[in-house]
Structure formats: structure tokens, C-alpha cells
Structure to design on (189 residues):
């Protein structure tokens, strides 16, 4: 729902959708306030998480899809403990070179994994990935399948993969959370 007005979110809630993804704290906060009368919704943070935004993001989102380094995970765990929160966390991985995105490499994730597992109160349930722009469908599907294999090796059940332009390949590879914006809402403002 990033880039979409609160009223567009309201219309989807009325149609039965409860989970929404936002990338910017400020924008999300205003929308959450405007929709407070709907009761609790399931808010997912999917954007780059800056260190100085961790506390307010934890206060407003039950799930974070974009933990992309061990220091950020450690910081998030410490602040979650201070806040008495146990957020669901997905670790963002980058399985192909892509200078526009962050994320653990496969080797980096395997190396950090023993420390990540000890980071109570984080509930690390899965991996998130994005295909580099310009990759064709035939190359995206093995990329998503590689992410699914890595999650399986780590015993993680959730996979956040697939956007408006590539969700069919992600779904075939086993995605459990497709992050669909423009295909549902129309183009962003
Ligand atoms: C904006 C965004 C989406 C949705 O993108 P669409 O192409 O509009 O479906 C999915 N994931 C992330 C991380 C995003 O920032």
C-alpha cells in the first residue's frame, strides 16, 4: 500500500484484505492513524530500515521483511526487548549482484546464522528477496527457487517473494508472502 492513499487501503480492507506493506515510516504512520477506526490491521515493513527508525517501526509494524545485516538484526532485537515486543522478522537476501538493493549474501547469511538464531525476542520466520530489475522470467524462477532452498536449509517456513511483475514465478517457487502493490491498487501517486 506504499504510495497509496488511506482511502484505497480502506477499500481493500472492506474487501477482506488485512495485511498491508509499507516502506516509509512517516507515510505509514499517517495512514495508520487515518485507519485507526478499522481496528488492528496486519502491518508489514518492507522498505530499507534505517538504524534510527528501528524503534518507531517496531512500535507500528508486527512484521519486518527487510532486516539485511547482523548489526541491524542485533539492534532490532535489543530495542524490541526494551519495548517488550516479539516482532516477526524476515531476513532480506540478495542472491544476485544488484547495487540498488541490500541484503545478506548466501555466504554472509550462513556465517551470521548462529548469531541471528540467538537474537531473542526476534521471531525469525523466513527470507525475503527481490529479483534484480531486468532479469527475465526464466531467470527469476531459479533465483526464487534458490531462496526457497536456502530457507529450507535453515528451517525457515516463510518466503516473501514476488511483486506485481513477477509474482507467478515467485508463487511457483513457494512464496508464502507475495508483496503486490500496483497490480491491486493501480499505479502509485
Ligand atoms: C513497492 C514494493 C512492492 C510492490 O511493488 P509492485 O510492483 O507495485 O507490486 C513490493 N515489495 C517491495 C519491497 C516494495 O518496495
Amino acid at each position: 500500500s506504499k504510495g497509496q492513499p488511506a482511502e484505497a487501503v480502506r477499500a481493500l480492507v472492506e474487501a477482506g484484505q488485512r495485511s498491508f506493506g509499507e516502506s516509509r515510516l512517516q507515510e505509514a504512520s499517517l495512514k495508520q492513524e487515518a485507519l485507526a477506526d478499522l481496528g488492528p490491521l496486519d502491518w508489514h515493513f518492507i522498505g530499507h530500515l534505517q538504524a534510527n527508525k528501528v524503534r518507531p517501526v517496531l512500535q507500528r509494524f508486527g512484521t519486518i521483511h527487510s532486516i539485511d545485516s547482523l548489526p541491524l538484526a542485533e539492534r532490532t532485537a535489543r530495542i524490541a526487548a526494551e519495548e517488550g515486543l516479539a516482532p516477526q522478522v524476515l531476513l532480506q537476501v540478495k542472491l544476485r549482484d544488484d547495487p540498488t538493493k541490500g541484503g545478506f549474501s548466501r555466504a554472509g547469511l550462513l556465517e551470521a546464522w548462529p548469531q541471528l538464531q540467538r537474537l531473542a525476542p526476534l521471531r525469525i520466520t523466513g527470507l525475503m528477496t527481490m529479483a534484480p530489475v531486468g532479469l527475465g522470467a526464466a531467470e527469476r524462477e531459479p533465483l526464487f527457487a534458490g531462496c526457497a532452498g536456502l530457507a529450507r536449509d535453515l528451517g525457515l517456513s516463510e518466503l516473501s517473494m514476488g511483486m506485481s511483475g513477477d509474482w507467478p514465478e515467485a508463487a511457483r517457487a513457494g512464496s508464502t508472502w507475495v508483496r503486490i502493490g500496483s497490480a491491486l491498487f493501480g499505479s502509485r501517486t
Observations:
- Residues 2, 23, 46-47, 163-165, 179-183 surround pyridoxal-5'-phosphate (CB under 6 Å).
- Residues 65 and 126 are 9 Å apart (CA to CA).
